[in-house]
Design brief:
83 residues; alpha+beta; four-stranded mixed sheet; 2 helices; structural constituent of ribosome; Ribosomal_bL31_sf
């Protein structure tokens, strides 16, 4: 590897604000904010969605029943030919 061209890899605290959970993960993200967790100081990055709050991973997914275009056509014109 060439020297001085790669970003600094560090341990970062990501905070899922929707589920109020923290993830301590290695990353190259740059941030000026810090937070102290478990007696250590980490760079801090708030995030909106993670696996702790996303409906697909939590099982709270809403299923929306939508008919296709053919079903909508048949429902709209089903009584026209029966006169």
């Amino acid at each position: 590897m060439k020297p001085n061209i790669h970003p600094d890899y560090q341990t970062v605290a990501f905070h899922d604000t929707a589920a109020d959970s923290y993830f301590i993960i290695g990353s190259t993200i740059k941030t000026s904010r810090t937070i102290e967790l478990e007696g250590k100081t980490y760079p801090y990055v708030p995030i909106d969605v993670s696996s702790d709050s996303h409906p697909f991973y939590t099982g709270k997914q809403k299923s929306v029943a939508t008919d296709g275009r053919v079903a909508a056509f048949n429902r709209r014109f089903k009584n026209i030919g029966s006169k």
